[in-house]
Amino acid sequence: MKEERFIYSTEKNSLEIRIYDPGSTVNAAIIAHPYAPLGGNFNNHVVIAIAEKLFSLEYLVVTFNFRGALGSKGQTSWTSYPEQQNFQTVINYTLTNFPKINKIILGGYSYGALIAIKMNPPIKNTFFLLISPPLPPLTYFLGLFLQFTSNNLHKKGLVIYGGKDLLTSLFSWRNYCKFWANLNSPNELITVKVENAGHFWSEKNNLEILLSEISNWINFIRT
Are 75 and 67 in contact (CB under 8 A)? Predict the structure, then answer.
């Protein structure tokens, strides 16, 4: 079952959410969208594909529009703090309304991944799913004072990025790949590089590869 609702953030602005509910389940995922001023919202094709894949794997999935995107009130901030509050509001709503949840994935694509990794794990079995998270200098260009810290990097989860993500310069792209390649740890963030994928996952077969990697990871954290 899929339905859309409005909930209220801590700022009393209404947030538009979409719930993919498979029925009885103890697993949940919340997936955030790309940067709203550049057209990001919960109708993004990557966000929908991830949500539908997780739903097919018996996950309750919640996607939502950050403040200023589609039906959500307010406007995009330059600090990301209100957006982090939006994400926390959705976490609280999900765990309150679905109290049987004992495993949750906090995820996002592009800008949404940067917000997701800032969240504190709300329950013991919390994992992070980060798709194409941008790194500086792109984040500075957008006015986003978001960066990964050592605390962020010790969270459990999966990072998937494209080997041809050209939203950054060639120099920063090489460092981007090196940055993720050095993160692999059995108990922390697992990183996967999809060689021929760009930032938008629009090349032939790459979205299918992305979804396959997510499925493999879901099986891995199931044990």
Answer: yes
At which residue do the structure tokens 């939203």 appear?
167
Distances (CA, A) of 212 to 74, 200, 205, 218: 36, 17, 11, 10
- Reported residue count of the chain is 223
Give Rg (Cα) of the chain: 16
Q: How many other CB atoms sit within 10 Å of the CB of residue 65?
A: 25
Token pair in block for residue 35: 């940067």
Domain residues for the domain of 72 are: 2-222
Give kind and range of the element (H or E) at residue 176: helix 170-181
Give the list of residues 6+ apart from residue 93 with CB closer than 8 angstroms, or none: 7, 17, 62
Residue 176 belongs to domain with CATH number: 3.40.50.1820
Predicted TM-score (pTM) above 0.70: yes
Query: 10 Å Cβ neighbour count for 194?
Result: 22
pLDDT digits (tens, 9 = 90+) for 124-180: 999 999 999 887 655 554 555 555 554 555 678 998 989 888 764 444 555 656 666
Q: What CA–CA distance (Å, rounded) separates 29 from 18?
A: 12
Which amino acid belongs to residue 7? I
Q: Are strands 103-109 and 157-162 parallel, antiparallel or unpaired?
A: unpaired
Domain count within the chain: 1
